[in-house]
Specification:
Length: 216
């Protein structure tokens, strides 16, 4: 395990000098620290607490954005409204990123309120259980329960969109696969990353950034 943690995975495709410089800095600073931390549960817990201190610093949100903490059943999280005139009969169930052990709905509000505004519907950002205290299976269980809770609230399956970034993107796909295996209703338009990449590819700025090896 220790050997695997120390392996550098280098892309086979060319990257920009900016990306190479960032990778070099991270390799010499963050990697040695992270390698030590992930070797034990206590180290991961300490790292999680340090990173989550940023949640206590209130972010500046536009006046038209509303954040409402909520709890229904066993699901906790917050409703994010990116502006007026949203379709309240539809919802985005969002899973934040953070390697399954850091961050929260609060840290991802700059993403969720914009997603709400673009999607034209409220976003429910789930506060799912994370490591090192909880397992990935428990994170998935929370995601599935949140989906079921939304169904119980009266949302139709075809009006629920699942979304997430980074680890949350992984949780999104895991949730969809689990729903498929259980035979539960899910929206067919919940597609893996390549479909989203095609949508993002319409923006020339995204195409330029991808060509130059930018970190997105």
């Amino acid at each position: 395990m220790g050997h695997e943690l120390n392996v550098d995975i280098r892309p086979e495709y060319p990257v920009s000098w900016q990306a190479a410089a960032i990778n070099g800095v991270l390799r010499g600073t963050m990697k040695p620290i992270s390698t030590i931390l992930v070797r034990n549960t206590a180290g991961m817990a300490v790292a999680s607490r340090i990173i989550c201190l940023g949640e206590r610093v209130p972010g500046i949100l536009p006046k038209h954005v509303s954040i409402v903490p909520d709890e229904f059943g066993s699901c906790t999280g917050e409703w994010v409204h990116g502006g007026p005139g949203l379709d309240e009969d539809k919802v985005v169930l969002y899973f934040h990123g953070g390697a399954y052990f850091v961050c929260s709905p609060a840290t991802h509000r700059p993403i969720t309120w914009r997603l709400s505004a673009v999607a034209g519907r409220p976003v429910f950002s789930l506060d799912y259980r994370q490591g090192p205290v909880h397992s990935l299976a428990e994170s998935l269980s929370d995601a599935l329960q949140a989906y079921e809770c939304l169904l119980d609230l009266g949302y139709a399956a075809h009006d629920i969109v699942l979304a997430g970034d980074s680890a949350g993107g992984h949780l999104t796909l895991a949730t969809l696969l689990s729903l498929r295996d259980r035979g539960m209703p899910s929206r067919r338009r919940n597609l893996p990353v390549p479909a989203g990449r095609r949508l993002a590819g319409r923006d020339p700025r995204v195409r330029r950034a991808d060509h130059h090896g930018a970190v997105l």
